[in-house]
Specification:
The structure is a single chain. The protein has eleven helices and three strands, in the order ααααααααααβββα. The chain has two domains: about 190 residues; about 55 residues, Herpes Virus-1 (2-Layer Sandwich), CATH 3.30.40. The protein is rod-shaped and about 95 Å long. About 60% of the residues lie in helices and about 5% in strands. It is mainly alpha-helical.
C-alpha cells in the first residue's frame, strides 16, 4: 500500500502513525473478525487522507469520499447479511409457531434491509470505478506531477465491494426462500393445532414446508373420519397412551387403524401412510 507507506515516511503526516497504532491495537486486544474489520477501517481512513491531500486542481473526483462511503456500505451490508443468514438455518425449536408469526414482520424488515444494502453497495462500486477512471485520466495534472497515491488499494476495494454485494445478494435470496418455507410450514402446523393438540403436545414448533412435502395438507386431513375413543383401553401407537372414551380419535379409512386425532394429524402432515401398517392413506 503505497499511500500508507508514503504517509508513514512523511514526517508531517502524524495522522498515519496514529491510525496505524489504532489498527494494531484493535487486532492485539481482540483478534476477532470485528476487530480486523475495525483495523481495516483504520487503513481505509488513512488511504482517504492520502487522497484528500492531493492538490485541489488534481482532485477531479472525491475518491476519499468514495472510500469512506464504501467502507460504511460494506459494514452495513455485512451486518445485515449476517442477520439474514440466520434465516437460512433450520427453524429454532425453542421458538413456537406463535412467536415465529409475531417475529415475521421483524424478519421481513431485516431481509428487506439485507436486500437493499447490497444493491446500494453495488451501485456505489460502479460509481467508484467511474470516479477512479476520471481521476486517473492521463490528461490530468495528477499523473504529470506524480502525486497520485496508490491505486492498488482502491482497485482492491472496488473488487471486494463488488464481490461482497454479489455474495450478500445470494445469501439474502436464499434467506427469503427459507423464510417463506418456514412461514408456510408453520401455517400448516397451526391449521391442525387445536386445544387437544396443545394439551397433548404443547405449542407447535415451526417447520420447513419441505419437511411436509410427503404428507397431506390440512384440508385433506380434515376430510378423514373423526370420532370419539372407546373404553377398550387401546393404545395409540404414536404417543403410547391409552385411548379413553371422550378423546377425539381419527380412524384411517384404508386400514381402519385408530389414533388420537392430535397425534395422527401431525404424523399425516409429514407422511401420507399409516404409522402402524404403512398403508397409503386414501383421501375421499
Amino acid at each position: 500500500m503505497k499511500g500508507l507507506l508514503l504517509g508513514i515516511s512523511d514526517v508531517e503526516t502524524s495522522e498515519t502513525g496514529l491510525v496505524v497504532a489504532i489498527a494494531l491495537l484493535c487486532v492485539a486486544l481482540c483478534p476477532r473478525l470485528k476487530c480486523f474489520l475495525a483495523a481495516f477501517g483504520c487503513v481505509v481512513f488513512d488511504q482517504a487522507l492520502q487522497w484528500r491531500r492531493i492538490e485541489a486542481e488534481c482532485m477531479t473526483r472525491p475518491i476519499h469520499v468514495w472510500l469512506v462511503g464504501a467502507y460504511m456500505f460494506a459494514m452495513m451490508s455485512f451486518m445485515s447479511c449476517a442477520a439474514a443468514a440466520k434465516q437460512c438455518k433450520c427453524p429454532d425449536t425453542n421458538v413456537s409457531c406463535v412467536q415465529q408469526t409475531r417475529e415475521s414482520s421483524r424478519s421481513k424488515g431485516i431481509l428487506a434491509l439485507a436486500t437493499v444494502l447490497p444493491m446500494c453497495l453495488f451501485v456505489w462500486s460502479g460509481l467508484g470505478m467511474y470516479w477512479l477512471d476520471e481521476a486517473l485520466d492521463p490528461d490530468t495534472q495528477c499523473l504529470q506531477k506524480g502525486t497520485q497515491p496508490s491505486i492498488t488499494f482502491v482497485v482492491a476495494c472496488l473488487i471486494l465491494s463488488g464481490c461482497e454485494a454479489f455474495l450478500c445478494a445470494v445469501i439474502t435470496g436464499q434467506a427469503w426462500v427459507v423464510s417463506q418455507s418456514v412461514a408456510r410450514g408453520s401455517a400448516a402446523v397451526m391449521a391442525i393445532a387445536d386445544a387437544d393438540f396443545m394439551q397433548r403436545w404443547g405449542v407447535p414448533k415451526p417447520v420447513l414446508q419441505e419437511d411436509l412435502s410427503r404428507g397431506l395438507s390440512p384440508a385433506q386431513i380434515d376430510t378423514l373420519p373423526c370420532g370419539e375413543g372407546s373404553a377398550s383401553g387401546e393404545r395409540c401407537v404414536i404417543c403410547l397412551f391409552p385411548v379413553v372414551g371422550d378423546e377425539p380419535v381419527r380412524k384411517l379409512p384404508a386400514c381402519s387403524h385408530s389414533f388420537h386425532r392430535s397425534c395422527v394429524d401431525q404424523w399425516l402432515l409429514r407422511s401420507a401412510s399409516c404409522p402402524t401398517c404403512k398403508a397409503a392413506v386414501v383421501v375421499e
